[in-house]
Amino acid sequence: MLKFMKAFCGTAVVMSAASGAYADEASTKNFSLNVGAFAFIGPSYEGSDEFRVTGVPIVFPSFGDSAERSRVTVRGVDDVRLSVFRRGGFDVGPIVGYSFGRDEDLSGKLDGLGDVDGGVVLGAFTSYTAGDFFVESGISSQVTGADDAGYLANAAVGYTAQLAPRLSMTARTGLEYASDSYMDRYFTITDTQSNNSAENYGAFNASGGIKNVGIDLSMEFEATDRITLRANGGYNRLLGDAANSPISESDNQISGGLGFLVQF
Fold first, then answer.
1. Is the pLDDT at 210 greater than 60, yes or no?
2. What is the mean pLDDT of the chain?
3. From 18's CA, which of 32, 114, 152, 198 has a CA 20 to 30 Å away?
4. How far apart, in whole angstroms, are the C-alpha atoms of residue 257 and residue 169?
């Protein structure tokens, strides 16, 4: 995880430097660097009923036409969005990130299934913001570490509310669609894997479709002009073959996190 975060931080800085070709003068005036740390708790792997806690440092830039609308949006380590075209409330741009894949040693339930290799993720997104409401969609694929990693497509709607002068809340709900190849990598059990499995899983062929629907809630408190405290919680419901796969022990996937950011 720490090895990846170094790569992620480097990617964020490179994105910031490269953005000069797209950002106007007002955007560069609002440039800042966010440095912080977060602790996450969530399923050991997608479909697991076991949990693990991970602590990571994080660094990413923020810049935009106003302090409220940065051109960089971090949805996750595998989903960092850079708005290169902005017109009114519309934003369009690339998605970059890194997928960790899935290590067999994350859980005894995966013994015998082998590792799912991680790699660089590339894609594109579009979003529209109207006041406190937003809608967004994106599509991305892992382009290194696998011959055919498939793709993920997502769509969401959300709302941001200012609860107090220094306290805000964002609620977001959406769904993810996974291709056949993506589902094969994470949810199919081949005959060989079935024979090697410590859990004696039966063979299973996972097909593409809507993989999950979910909702997440995040809170931000500006402790000072430079320090922001963040908390978030999320719930995803696995659907289709993601839920039917033998390795999926719980359709209900719950996660949360606490952390802070210092703005420079």
1. yes
2. 87
3. 152
4. 15
**What b/e readout covers 176-195, taking b as 16+ CB neighbours within 10 angstroms?**
bbbbbbbbbbbbbbeeebbe
Which residues, other chains included, contact 68 with Cβ-Cβ below 8 Å and sequence gap of 6+?
none
Do residues 236 and 213 make contact, with C-beta atoms less than 8 angstroms apart?
A: yes
How far is 64 from 84, CA to CA, in rounded Å? 10
CA angle 217-87-164, nearest 5°?
A: 35
Q: Which residues pair with 161 in a beta bridge?
A: 169
Q: CA end-to-end span of the chain, whole Å?
A: 25
User: pLDDT grade, residue 162 (50/70/90)?
Assistant: very high
C-alpha Rg value of the chain to the nearest Å:
19
197 three-class SS: coil
Tokens at 123, concatenated: 């894609």
Secondary structure class of 213 (helix, strand, coil)? strand
3-state secondary structure of 27: helix
| Predicted confidence (pLDDT) at residue 165 exceeds the cutoff of 90 | yes
Local structure of residue 45 (DSSP, 8 states): S
Tell me if 170 sits within 8 A of 159, measured CB to CB. yes
Q: What is the pTM of this model?
A: 0.84
Pair of tokens at residue 215: 């909702």
Residue 172 has pLDDT above 90, yes or no: yes
Q: What is the DSSP string of 85-125?
A: EEETTEEEEEEEEEE--B-GGG-GGGTTS--B--EEEEEEE
Query: 192 phi and psi, to 5 degrees?
Result: -65, -45
Residue 140 — very low, low, confident or very high, per pLDDT cuts 50/70/90?
very high
114: alpha, beta or left? (left if phi > 0; alpha if psi -120 to 50): left
